[in-house]
Write a structure and sequence with these properties.
This protein is an all-beta fold and 74 residues long. Helices cover 0% and strands 57% of the residues. The strands form two sheets. The protein has a three-stranded antiparallel sheet with strand order 1-4-3, with no helix packed on it. A three-stranded antiparallel sheet has the order 2-5-6, with no helix packed on it.
Length: 74
């Protein structure tokens, strides 16, 4: 789950995934709250993976990253 705070007007969220990963993003009506579901592909092995997140509304931008330790299940 996530919540965007600050000076964002209708923000959009992008998740940049490691190879063979995808992200499904669900947001509320104004785009400030939602959830990110990480989906590993069939070739993903056990290990540590970093995902980069970019939030922008065309005027303001913010970025962050998070790391998960994947052991074959989320």
């Amino acid at each position: 789950k996530y919540e965007i705070t600050g000076k964002f007007d209708e923000p959009s969220l992008n998740v940049f995934c490691p190879s063979d990963w995808s992200a499904q993003i669900a947001t509320d009506a104004d785009g400030t709250k939602g959830s990110i579901v990480l989906v590993p592909g069939s070739s993903v092995k056990t290990g540590t993976y970093t995902f980069n997140v970019l939030v922008s509304d065309g005027t303001h931008s913010a970025a962050t990253a998070f790391t998960i330790n994947y052991n074959g299940g989320l």
